[in-house]
């Protein structure tokens, strides 16, 4: 019987978001006779809980934390040491890194583990189980280059250098969006390593409109007003501040529902109070299988500042929702022409409000946009295609 190849998935956060959904989908669909998946992650428990329910082994790395501060933090050194120990203990055949922070740590830790093994066996002369040649391959999935985020020019330059080092030290890269693939090809020595494999989804299960609304509002009767909705982690990259600001220019009869949890919850609720729109905004903490509630929404709003190829937008499209999204490159790969949805400039609450009002006033337009987008997403972004291409890449690495 052939030995199964071990794939160690690394991700910075164990909360639930697009990158975590990507890891979950791959780890739970690997051919069992060929691959053994193991998922290691930092803070957060949602991903670990979902994986444990289907029998995928997980490993927590408490020292691995996400931060928007550029440059090394004290916890980074602990995380680096923990990753070296993890790699030596697990000895995976492929290390599949996701999210930019753990990707950099992962490639450096892998090189560090080789130096550490060399020191033990050839300099310190200590007996070690790591004496055998250990050369796992590193695969880095780019869920949106971090240097695309709006930051000071110097900080952006530092992050670009870190991203380039990560790509250079990786054996192969997957870009989930066409634009990120193109950016990778501009980096010297990277073109031959990168493959464009878009995110893909299976058919999603949807609650009926009234059932979904009653579940979200926890009331016995469904709310009959027009609903704008969105789903995602409450972080600056999602642009929810601009969506809340837009609500001030939208008729009072319209409701906004935001499904998600995150660090920005307090500031967003305070901003809604400041603009006096809090009575029309329903904040719902992150829910398991949140996509099942999409039919509660008449319009799906997605005002992100930075994305790779967002699952939330794919699922909203597949559900038949009319979409208003920011005109950033990841979103434009899904809303690829005006017949599929409405795109507005990012970080522009005025234009966002105008687009939302236009759809709120035109039920026929909402229906036609939603129908065409659903057909497009179901035909173009399939999970089967994503899995097949990823497995083919694994084969070339081992």
From TrEMBL:
Q: GO MF terms on file?
A: glycosyltransferase activity
Please report the stretch or stretches of sequence annotated as the Glycosyl transferase family domain: 218-371
Q: Which residues form the Glycosyltransferase subfamily 4-like N-terminal domain?
A: 16-202
Instruction: Offer one Pfam family short name for this entry.
Output: Glyco_transf_4
Q: Which SUPFAM superfamilies match?
A: UDP-Glycosyltransferase/glycogen phosphorylase
Which superkingdom does the taxonomy of this entry point to? Bacteria
Would you tell me the protein name for this molecule?
A: Glycosyltransferase subfamily 4-like N-terminal domain-containing protein
């Amino acid at each position: 019987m052939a030995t199964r190849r071990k794939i160690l998935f690394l991700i910075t956060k164990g909360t639930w978001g697009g990158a975590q959904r990507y890891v979950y989908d791959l780890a739970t669909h690997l051919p069992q006779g060929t691959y053994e998946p193991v998922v290691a992650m930092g803070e957060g428990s949602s991903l670990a809980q979902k994986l444990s329910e289907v029998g995928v082994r997980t490993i927590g790395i408490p020292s691995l934390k996400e931060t928007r501060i550029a440059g090394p933090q004290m916890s980074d050194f602990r995380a680096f040491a923990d990753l070296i120990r993890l790699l030596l203990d697990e000895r995976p055949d492929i290390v599949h890194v996701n999210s930019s922070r753990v990707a950099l740590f992962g490639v450096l830790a892998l090189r560090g583990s080789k130096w550490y093994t060399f020191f033990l066996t050839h300099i310190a002369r200590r007996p070690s189980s790591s004496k055998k040649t250990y050369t796992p391959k590193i695969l880095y999935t780019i869920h949106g280059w971090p240097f695309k985020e709006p930051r000071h020019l110097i900080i952006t330059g530092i992050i670009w250098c870190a991203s380039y080092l990560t790509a250079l030290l990786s054996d192969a890269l997957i870009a989930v969006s066409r634009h990120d693939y193109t950016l990778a090809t501009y980096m010297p020595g990277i073109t031959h390593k990168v493959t464009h494999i878009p995110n893909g989804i299976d058919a999603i299960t949807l609650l009926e409109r009234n059932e979904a609304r009653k579940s979200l509002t926890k009331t016995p009767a469904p709310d009959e007003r027009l609903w704008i909705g969105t789903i995602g982690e409450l972080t600056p990259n999602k642009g929810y501040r601009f969506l809340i600001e837009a609500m001030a220019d939208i008729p009072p009869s319209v409701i906004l529902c935001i499904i998600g949890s995150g660090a920005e919850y307090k500031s967003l609720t305070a901003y809604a109070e400041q603009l006096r729109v809090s009575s029309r905004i329903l904040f719902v903490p992150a829910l398991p299988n949140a996509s099942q509630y999409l039919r509660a929404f008449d319009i799906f709003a997605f005002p992100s500042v930075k994305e790779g190829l967002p699952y939330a937008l794919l699922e909203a499209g597949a559900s038949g929702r009319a979409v208003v999204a920011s005109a950033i490159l990841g979103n434009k790969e899904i809303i690829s022409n005006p017949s599929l949805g409405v795109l507005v400039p990012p970080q522009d609450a005025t234009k966002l409000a105008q687009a939302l009002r236009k759809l709120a006033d035109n039920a026929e337009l909402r229906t036609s946009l939603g129908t065409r987008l659903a057909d497009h997403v179901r035909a173009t972004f399939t999970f089967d295609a994503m899995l097949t291409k990823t497995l083919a890449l694994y084969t070339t690495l081992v």
